Amino acid sequence: MTPVPPPAMLDITCLRRVRPWGGDPVDIAMDAGTITAIAPAGTAPIGVREFDGRGLLALPGIVNAHAHVDKSWWGLRWQSYGGEGSTEGRIRHERAEREALGIPSFERSAHVLREFVRHGTTAIRTHVDVDDGIGLRGIEAVEQAAAAYEGALDVRIVAFPQDGILRRPGVLDLLRDAAGRPSVDRIGGLDPATIDRDPVGQIDAITALAADTGVGIDIHLHDPAELGAFQIELLVDRAARLGLQGRINIAHGFAVAQLEPARRRDLLQAMSDVGVTMTTVAPLRLPQLPLAELDEAGVRFAFGTDGIRDLWSPYGTGDTLGIAWQYARAAGIVRDDDLLRVVQLATSAAAWSVGRDTHDLVEGARADIVLVDAENPQDALVRTPERALVVAGGRVLHVA
Asked: pLDDT of 312-362, one tens digit each?
C-alpha cells in the first residue's frame, strides 16, 4: 500500500495572534519548517498562508516519549480483553492474537499516528516489537505509516524485544539488523531479571550492541525496589565503561519511586552522572516518579502514552497531555510552578527524547506548535482541552 499524506497537511507561513506559554499575543512566522520570527501581534509581514490564532494559548508540540504505535487494534471493532494479569501472560496472549487483527501493519500504525496528531503530538519515540515471529515487519509498518507525513511528524523508533532476548534465539541478531536502519535510533530491552532471568547477560548484550552500532538504549524496567535498582546500577556501570553516556533511558523504572529516600537520592545521582534518563506513563496504581528529586539530581524525564487500545489493555486515548494530567493528579501536584513544569515535561523539556537540543516557541526552533483554548499552561493541563490547531514542521496536520 502506498502511503497517502493525511488531510489538511498544508504549509503555513505565519500564526497570528497567539499567546506562547500564556504571554502577550504575538505573530509567529515560519519558513521551511522552522520558526523564523516572533513579533508583537499584527507586526509580522503578511505571509502567503496564515492562520488567525484568535488569542489562543500556544505551546510547543507535545512529545510522546514512550509509545507503541505498532500494537493497537484501534480502528477495528471493540476487542474484549482476554489476556492474563502478568507481563508474561500478556506477552503470550499478544503473540497468539495479533496476526488475526493485522498487528503489526501499516493500517494499524497509521490509525494510531492520526490519533496522536489529533491530540497535539508532533514528535514520538515509539517502541516497535522485534521478535522471532514477526521479525522486522513491525518496523517496516511504522516506517511506512510515518512516511505518509513526509517528515512533518517526527517518529523515532526503538527496536523492542517484547518477548525477551536471551531466551529467544535470533532476537539479538534481529536487533543488530534493526540498528542498521535509519529510522531506528535505539534498541530496547525488557526486565532482564524476570523475563530473560539473566540481568547481567541481557544488559551486557544490549549495551555491547549499542556501543558497537552507535545506537542508544531504551529499556522497559518494571522490576520493583532493590531488584530494579540493581539492574539500573548495572546500566549505569555499563554506560560509564562503554562510553554510553547520555544514550540510555529507563522506561517505567518503578523501582526508583519505591526506594527509601536516601537510597533513591544516591541512585538518581549515579544516573545523572552518566546521563541516564527516564520516561513514565504515570501508572495509577503505583507511586509516581518524584518530580522534585529528579530535577534536583538532574535526571531528565518525559511522558509517554505506552500502548493504547491493544491486546494488553483497552485503555488509552493517545493524549500525552492527558498522561501529564494523570501524573500531576496522582502525584498531588497543585502549585503553579509545578504544574507548569509538568507541561514543560510534556513539551519543551522532552526535547532530549527525540534528539533535539531545542523544542520550544523560539526563533530557530522547529515549527512544532499546538494551539488550545486555555488561559495558561496550568489551565491547559488541568482541563486538557481539545487541540484547536496542530502544526508540525511548519505544516498544519490538524484543525479542530
From this structure: 999 999 999 999 999 999 999 999 999 999 999 999 999 999 999 999 999
Question: 58 with 28: CB under 8 angstroms?
Answer: yes
Query: 3-state DSSP call for residue 158?
Result: strand
For residue 145, the Cα-to-chain-centroid distance in whole angstroms is 17
- Cα 255 versus chain centre, distance: 20
Q: How far is CA 66 from CA 30, 213, 350, 384, in A?
A: 28, 22, 11, 19
Q: Which of 358, 399, 381, 398 is nearest to 113 (CA)?
A: 398
d(CA 110, CA 116): 10
For residues 87 and 106, give the distance between their C-alpha atoms in angstroms, rounded to a whole number: 26
70 in any annotated domain: yes
Pick from 75, 74, 206, 71: which is nearest to 139 by CA? 71
Q: What three-state secondary structure class fits 135?
A: strand
Look at residue 321 in the predicted model and tell me its pLDDT.
98
Q: Give the separation between CA 106 and CA 117, rounded to whole angstroms.
A: 16
**Of 292, 263, 294, residue with least CA distance to 278:** 294
For residues 271 and 297, give the distance between their C-alpha atoms in angstroms, rounded to a whole number.
9
CATH number where 31 lies: 2.30.40.10
Report residue 118 as a C-alpha cell.
Answer: 489529533
Contact 304, 66 (CB under 8 A): yes
Alpha helices in the chain (DSSP H): 87-97, 106-118, 137-147, 171-179, 199-213, 225-242, 254-258, 261-273, 291-297, 320-330, 336-346, 377-383
45 and 156 share a domain? Answer: no
Note whether 195 and 112 are same-domain residues: yes
308 and 224 fall within a common domain: yes
Number of neighbouring beta carbons within 10 Å of residue 245: 12
Q: 3-state class of 111 per DSSP? A: helix
Alpha carbon distance 305, 320 (integer Å): 6
* Cα 11 to Cα 393: distance, rounded to the nearest angstrom: 9
Identify the domain containing residue 124 by its residue range: 62-354
Q: Does any domain span residue 4?
A: no
Across the range 35-50, mean pLDDT stands at: 86
Same domain, residue pair 226 and 236: yes
- Three-class SS of residue 171? helix
**How far is the C-alpha of 183 from the C-alpha of 117, rounded, in Å?**
19
Cα gap 39→13, rounded to integer Å: 14
